[in-house]
Amino acid sequence: MIGYWIYWINPEIAAHYANRAEKIVELFREYRDAKASQKELLARQIRYITETIPSELIDKALHKQFGRRLDYRSEKSIYIIQTKKAEDEATLMRQNRRLMLMVENSEDTVVSQMFEALASVTPHFLAVDFHFNRAQWIVSKIEKRKFA
Fold first, then answer.
1. C-beta atoms surrounding 62 within 10 Å
2. Across the chain, where does the E strand assignment appear?
3. d(Cα 147, Cα 11) in Å, to the nearest integer?
4. Packing angle between helix 108-119 and helix 55-66, nearest 10 degrees?
5. Is this prediction's pTM over 0.85?
6. Angle at 29 between CA 88 and CA 50, to 5 degrees
7. Quick check: 86 pLDDT over 60?
8. DSSP assigned state of 131
9. pLDDT digits (tens, 9 = 90+) for 27-80
């Protein structure tokens, strides 16, 4: 299983750290490893750099991307996509300031489709693996025009 925490980063912070996402990840890692005395200060910093994730926008984007598929379903703040094999499944859970994406058997196409749907909401989503080792900005694919 692979998993990502997905944060909606404040646009000003995202612009400033566009090429230095590892600095943002370092803050999340510090929060995870902090002692109780430091947790509140780090939590305030995380609240400052992240945005609340509006459920309507996520619902709309995922329904647009997956709504016609028979293997897609959603309940409240949980979205599930099953791949051709019943044991392969992607689950996205919406929380207040982050999303949690879990994928069984690392089906890359489902992850990229999920990222594509989220990129249609904002270019300021940062996906961080569960261990806070790697991060990537979720951006839409740029269609290249073919000239004859």
1. 22
2. 2-8, 72-75, 78-82, 89-94, 99-103, 125-129, 135-138
3. 34
4. 130
5. yes
6. 80
7. no
8. T
9. 999 999 999 999 999 999 999 999 999 999 999 999 898 887 768 888 888 998
